[in-house]
Amino acid sequence: MKPLTVILCFLALVGCGGKDSPKPPLSAQLVFPEKNSECTTGIAITGTNNSTVQFRWQASDHTESYELRATNLNTNTTQTIVVGGTSANLNIERGAPYSWQIVSKNTQVSETARSETWRFFNAGTETTHAPFPAEVIAPKTGSNIARDINNEVLLEWEGADVDNDLEGYEVYFSTETPPTTLINTLTSGKSDLKVSVETNTVYYWRIVTIDREGNTATNNISEFKVR
C-alpha cells in the first residue's frame, strides 16, 4: 500500500471515530461542617428550634449536580436538596446530632458517586453534648456472613463525642428485636467485641454510647445473618 493511501485511511478512521463515552462522576470531598465537630455558625430561625446551616464541599470531576443528604441522628429523618454548585443551605434542628453526605450526579450516565459520611452536632444552648450514636463498621446491617473457626463473629463500631469525653459502650445483642440482652460493657478505648453465633440464625445488636457526664446515645438496631 502506498504511503499516501495509508495516511488517508488513518485520517478517515480518525474522522469517523466518535466522542469518548461520558465518564461517571467522582466523589466530592466534604469541607464543612467538619467531621465530629460542633457547628456553631448556624443562623437561628426566629420562633423555631431550627437554624440555617451552610454545607460546603469541593467540586468533583464529571459532575453536573450534587445531592446533599443531612440526617438527624436522633430521629433518623433525612433532608435532601439538589444543587449545581458546591454549597447549600438547610434548616436543621438546633442541639441535635447530624450526619451528612454528598451524592455526585451526571445525567449522561446512570452511575453516581457518594462522598464520605461526616457527623457533626448542630449547636443549640447546651453546655455539654451527648455523644454521637455509634457508627456500625461490621457486620453491615442486612449482611450474610460466615462465623470464624471459633464459631464467633466480630462486632465493630466507631464512637465519637464533640466534648471528647467518651466513657464507654454497652453492647446489646440477641436473636430478638429489639435486642435487650446486655452482653458486655466496654471502655471507650475498645470498640469491637467477639460474640458466639450459630449458623442459619439472624442476630440483632445495638450500642449505647456513654460519656463522662452521663449523657448517652443509642444507635439504630443493626442485624445480620450467619450462614
What report would you give on this structure?
The mean pLDDT is 91. Strand 14 (166-174) and strand 15 form a beta hairpin. Helices cover 6% and strands 48% of the residues. The chain has 227 residues and is mostly beta strands. It comes from Arenibacter troitsensis. This is Fibronectin type-III domain-containing protein.
Features of the shown structure:
single chain; 227 residues; mainly beta; Immunoglobulin-like; six-stranded mixed sheet; 6% helix
Strand content: over 45%
CATH classification, class level of the largest domain: Mainly Beta
Largest sheet: 6 strands, mixed
Give the proportion of residues in helices. Answer: under 10%
Instruction: Return residue spans where pLDDT drops below 50 for at least 5 consecutive residues.
Output: none
Q: Evaluate the radius of gyration.
A: 24 Å
Q: How many E-type strands? A: 19
Summing up helix and strand content along with how strands pair, one would put the structural category as mainly beta
Named CATH architecture of the largest domain: Sandwich
Give the termini separation.
65 Å
Compressed to H and E, one letter per element, the order equals HEEEEEEEEEEEEEEEEEEE
* CATH superfamily grouping of the largest domain: Immunoglobulins
The helix count comes to 1
Mean pLDDT: 91
CATH topology of the largest domain: Immunoglobulin-like
The global form is: flat
Number of domains: 2
